[in-house]
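[Meeting: bench + compute handoff]

Bench side (C.D.) handed over the final construct sequence. Compute side (W.E.) agreed to return the predicted structure before the next meeting so the bench team could plan truncations. Sequence as handed over:
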Amino acid sequence: MENQSPKREKKVFLVSGLVFLVLFVLPLGSIYFLNSGVSYRKASLSELEDKGKVGAFQLYNQVNIPVSPETLHGKVAVVNFLSEDDSTAHYQMERLSKVHQSYNETEDVVFLSFIKADSTTNMIDRAKGLGINDHQQWFLLGTDEENFRSLSASGFQITEPDKGIALVDTSMTIRRHYDISSNPEMGRLVEQIAIVIPKQKRRGL
């Protein structure tokens, strides 16, 4: 019986240790990570400003559907302006397509890419050439050079069209700009889209 006492004490010690772990250590760890997550979200939210409303426009996309701030109300918009230089434009699209992949099935997110175009531009062919195959979520919008510059600078406050991306919330308020050539900035864009979506719904559900 004396030989069993150390075993019994060891068992009691292990059980006590497990109880302490479950009742105290794990909850404290959960609280720490929860608070860290809340702090991270608050820090991310602090970066999202009210930069004013999107300027007025109405253009037809690649499948001939009219697009304006009014038709986009209630959706989060990711906006960029494509370079006239073909290699730069494809670089922009390649970078943005990675963001699109993250929200490909999210109903409340749309992508707007503006290009300089005229009445002779075949928009559906241009979209395909740029790799836009999702015509329900990614809109290619063509306009003349003067309106292109005005929409970039005044409509979306993008000062460097070849590099800038604008994040617009569901009320058509510009919230932040991102540098398309910066990996940290693009990662931040992916995170902050999720913050401004009111409720993420999958398309078709």
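W.E. noted at the follow-up: The first helix runs from residue 4 to 46. C.D. will use this when planning the next construct.
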